[in-house]
Amino acid sequence: MTLNIAALAVLCISVFGIAVVAEDPYRFFTWNVTYGDIYPLGVRQQGILINGQFPGPDIHSVTNDNLIINVFNSLDQPFLLSWNGVQQRRNSFEDGVLGTTCPIPAGGNFTYILQVKDQIGSFYYFPSLAFHKAAGGFGGIRILSRPRIPVPFDDPAGDYTVLIGDWYKLNHTDLKSQLDSGRKLPLPDGILINGRGSNGAYLNVEQGKTYRLRISNVGLENSLNLRIQNHKLKLVEVEGTHTLQTTYSSLDVHVGQSYSVLVTADQPAQDYYIVVSSRFTSTVLTTTGILRYSNSAGPVSGPPPGGPTIQIDWSLNQARSIRTNLTASGPRPNPQGSYHYGLINTTRTIILSGSPGIVNGKQRYAINSVSYVAPDTPLKLADYFKIPGVFRVGSISDRPTGGGIYLDTSVLQTDYRTFVEFVFQNDEDIIQSYHLDGYSFFVVGMDGGQWTPASRNTYNLRDAVSRSTTQVYPKSWTAIYIALDNVGMWNLRSEFWARQYLGQQFYMRVYTTSTSIRDEYPVPKNALLCGRASGRHTRPL
C-alpha cells in the first residue's frame, strides 16, 4: 500500500513509540524494482534495477536517522530487500529476510521503516529472496557521524561507494534452477566493480586531494583483493568501527564485508589501474577499473599490479592487524575503547561448523548438521503471534554433532542481555564467511587448526575490531564475542550465497519475557502478513 508523508509520520510514531523523538530526522525514499537488460560481462542478462539503476542508488544518512523506504515490486515474483549491517535495533520485523518479513508480492509494495540507531559507517543492501542477488538489486549504505561527533580524519575531497563482487553470465533464474535440481554452481565468470566489467568503472580524483572509498564485497562467493596502481590504501573504518589507520598496498575483502579506506592522489597526473582479483581460487579472476586524475596526461601504462592469490598467512596476518581505534569516537562522543569487552565474563560458548552433504539425492549445506528449510510463515511473525508448529526452539545444537546433515527449521535460543562466545570452526579446505543480522561482534581470535579452550590464550581482549561479517580461513577457526542486547529473530548465514540458499544458515532468537517497547517494538502497523499469520491483526494506530 502507498502511504503519504503525514500517514508515515503517524505510522513511525506508532511503530517506534517513545523511542523516536523529534530531533531524529526522517529521510524518504521511493524505489521501483524492475527487470532490465544489463551487459556487465558483454552478454545480455536480466538484471534487477532500482529506479532504473544497476547497481541501485546509495542511501545517505546520519546516525539515528529514520529511513522510510517505499519499495514497489514490479517484478513477476516476490521480492525482499535486506540491509547488511544495519542493526534494526529492537525491530527485527524490518530486517527483510524470509525469517522475519513477508515477501512483497509481485505488483505490490511495502514501506520499510528503519532507524540507523547508534550507528556509523559503510554497509550495503541486497535482495534476499531466491537467487536475486545474482541479478543486482544491491547498493551502498553510508551512515555519517552527527555534526558534533568528532571523526578521526579530515573530511575527504570525495566519498565513493565501490561495490565489488564476482558475477555469472547466466541469469539468476538459471542459477536458481541449477541449485534447485541439486547441482553445484560452476565458478563465476568474472568480477564487477560498481556493476561494470573490465575498465568500465572510473573514479575521478584531483591531484593532491584525499578520497574515501567505501568498499563492499556484494558478490556470491569469492574473497577479493583490491589494490590501486602506485597508491596506498589507509584503512579507517570497518562496518561501523573506526580502526587504527594502518596503510596497506592491497586489501582482502571477503564476501559480505565492507571497509572504508582513504586514498591520496599523490602520484603524477595520469590514469591508474584499480585491480580486483579473486583469492584462494585455482583459477584467478581479475578485473580492472580506472583511477583518473582530472589533469591526466595519459592513459594507464604498464601491467596491472599483481596481488596475493592463494596465500592464507598473508591474509590472516592482515586480518589480525585490523584493530579498533580506542580513542576515536563512534556514533556517540565517548571513545570506542570505553567499552571493555575483554573484562566481561562470557556465559555460554556456541561452536558452529558448516558442512556439505547430500539429502534426498540433492546437494545441501548445513550448520551443526542442520540444513535450514524456510517454513510457510516468517519465524518472527510466528513468534509474535504465538503460532504453533512453525519452529522449535533448540532445533539446532550449540556444538557440532558430527552426524550426517538433515533438514529442519533451525532456531537457536539465546537470552537477552547475556554475553556469549561464538566459535566458527571450518574443517573444509575453502574459506568461509559468516554474517549475523542485528549485531556487531568483536572478532577476538582466528587461527589454523581446531579450536580448543586453550585457544582463548591467544584472544585479543583489548582492541579487536567490531563488525558484523567475519571470514573463517580453510581448516581454521574464528572466535567472536557478542553482547546480546538486541531482542529479536536474527539470521546467521553463510555469505557464500549458494550455500546460504541450500541451508547453511539459521536464526538466533534473542529472547526476553519482557513486553516493554524499551526492549522490543511490536509488529509494525503496515506489516505484510502471510502464511499462518494471514488474517491476524497488527496494532491499531
**Unreliable residue runs:** 5-11, 13-21
Q: Could you tell me how far the N terminus lies from the C terminus, measured between alpha carbons in angstroms?
A: 16 Å
Radius of gyration: 22 Å
Tell me the number of strands: 34
Give the overall pLDDT as a whole number: 95
CATH A-level architecture of the largest domain:
Sandwich
Characterize the overall form. globular
Main sheet properties: 7 strands, mixed
Strand-residue proportion: 35-45%
Q: Within the CATH hierarchy, at the fold level, what is the topology of the largest domain?
A: Immunoglobulin-like
Q: Name the CATH class of the largest domain.
A: Mainly Beta
Please, how many domains?
Answer: 3
The secondary-structure class comes to mainly beta
Superfamily at the CATH H level of the largest domain? Cupredoxins -  blue copper proteins
**Share of residues in helices:** under 10%
**What is the quaternary state of this protein?**
single chain
Tally of individual helices: 5
Protein name: L-ascorbate oxidase-like
EC number: 1.10.3.3
Keywords: Glycoprotein, Oxidoreductase, Signal
Family: Belongs to the multicopper oxidase family.
